[in-house]
């Protein structure tokens, strides 16, 4: 697995495709025809991107690679007090292959070197929550809301 900073122009369609892949099951349930799905997904993607920019100034998309294939995207931002995992999406064909675990290991190693906690929010019931818990993330807020706030703390350095 490797990460590469996304180019806003060159990678725009890939970033959208990854987002759209994360919504396909939902779209199937709605039964919308293709003609309605894509404009809706494009609108939702752009709204998400703008919201991330407002809520997490300075966030960056990075492309996740498996070998030489683009496998997904991750959005992170570093503040003075934490590294925030804003979003991570893997294309369906790259899920359950250890890429998410590898990414979390690298993120935690970086946070450990910088002595910063890692924070994220995850939807209640999202299977990624179990992965985060395996990596030592603890619920620190929102236990009675649709999204829980989780945090991982680095081991204090010498």
UniProtKB/TrEMBL annotation:
Keywords: Ribonucleoprotein, Ribosomal protein. The keyword Ribonucleoprotein applies. Gene3D superfamilies: 3.40.630.30. Residues 20-155 form the N-acetyltransferase domain. SUPFAM superfamilies: Acyl-CoA N-acyltransferases (Nat) (SSF55729). It comes from the Bacteria. InterPro entries: Acyl_CoA_acyltransferase (IPR016181), GNAT_dom (IPR000182). PROSITE patterns: GNAT (PS51186). This is Ribosomal protein S18 acetylase RimI. The lineage of its organism: Bacteria, Bacillati, Bacillota, Negativicutes, Selenomonadales.
């Amino acid at each position: 697995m490797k990460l590469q900073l996304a180019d806003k122009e060159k990678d725009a369609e890939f970033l959208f495709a990854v987002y759209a892949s994360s919504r396909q099951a939902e779209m199937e349930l709605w039964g919308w025809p293709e003609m309605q799905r894509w404009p809706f997904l494009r609108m939702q993607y752009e709204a998400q991107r703008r919201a991330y920019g407002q809520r997490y100034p300075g966030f960056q998309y990075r492309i996740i690679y498996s070998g030489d294939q683009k496998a997904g995207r991750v959005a992170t931002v570093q503040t003075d007090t934490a590294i925030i995992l804003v979003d991570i999406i893997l294309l369906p064909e790259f899920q359950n292959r250890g890429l998410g675990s590898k990414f979390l290991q690298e993120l935690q190693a970086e946070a450990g070197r910088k002595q910063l906690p890692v924070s994220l929010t995850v939807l209640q019931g999202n299977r990624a929550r179990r992965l985060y818990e395996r990596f030592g993330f603890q619920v620190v807020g929102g236990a009675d809301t649709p999204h829980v706030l989780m945090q991982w703390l680095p081991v204090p350095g010498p």
